[in-house]
Amino acid sequence: MHDAHAATDMSRLRIAAAGDLHCREDGGAQVAESMARVAQEADLVLLCGDLTTHGRPEQAAVLAEACKGLDIPVLAILGNHDWHCDRAHDVVAELQHGGIQVLERESRILDVAGAEVGVVGLKGFVGGFIGSHLPDFGEPLLRQVYAESTIDVEALDQGLRNVAMCPVRIVMLHYAPTTTTLEGEPLGIWPFLGTDRLAAPIAEHEPHIVIHGHAHSGTFRGAIGEVPVYNVSIPVIERDFWIFELDRQIHRGPAIH
Predict the structure, then answer these.
(1) What are the b/e assignments for 158-173, b being 16+ CB within 10 Å?
(2) Which of 64, 73, 157, 179 gives the lowest tally of CB atoms within 10 Å of its CB?
(3) Quick one: CA dihedral 75, 79, 85, 86, positive or negative?
(4) pLDDT by residue for the chain (257 residues), tens digit each?
(5) How far is CA 138 from its chain centroid?
(6) What contacts 8, CB < 8 A, 6 or more positions away?
């Protein structure tokens, strides 16, 4: 990981975001240094999945230890790597021991440095985009994938309704909800990097910012209608965290630096 992008205007809400940390058992010192530094530069940390390399609780414990004692909120969602060993429950338990709030199809309303911030977090899933959508037809296993994405869409819609009155509203995903942040990835794997079925509730409710990871070779900035979408995968941002500076009482889009 590399240096965080510094935020200097203390009149704004400073939100640090990153995805695809891929923590390992032997990386504790580096992760601890990164978290301690960003805690001095941001008011809120959002981690967009693939927190671990293989989904082992020991790897999650590295991140949890780095976040213990931080005086700013840290919210996270799981990614596909975090499910690899099928021990997601244990991974979440370890993260919670470090004070990390793990969201899965949930919303949170936080008081962050005097600003009311609503965050909706979910992993998301595959499903494809225009021209490559997985249909609700055929083998039960394929229809189960479609059904899983349907649950995500419904949860995202409900979460955005829950935070509708918050002055600042953020969606955090692991999988991409738009192809605009996938440019650079091979076209053939786009259906495995996300689905634009998630775009419908975003377009309807217009959160102020959407962030995701997963697409290591994608594009940093995209959009769904007027809503800015950012791919904050560490290989894309080329630093530990990207810090977004948002107005504390947003009416339109955030100020991005």
Answers:
(1) ebbebbeebbbbbbbb
(2) 157
(3) positive
(4) 443 443 445 568 999 999 999 999 999 999 999 999 999 999 999 999 999 999 999 999 999 999 998 999 999 999 999 999 999 999 999 999 999 999 999 999 999 999 999 999 999 999 999 999 999 999 999 999 999 999 999 999 999 999 999 999 999 999 999 999 999 999 999 999 999 999 999 999 999 999 999 999 999 999 999 999 999 999 999 999 999 999 876 544 444 44
(5) 31
(6) none
Neighbour-count burial of 217, counting CB atoms closer than 10 A to its CB (0-12 exposed, 13-18 middle, 19+ buried): middle
Say how many C-beta atoms besides its own lie within 10 A of residue 73's C-beta: 20
Burial of 125 (0-12, 13-18, 19+ CB in 10 A): buried
Q: What is the pTM of this model?
A: 0.93
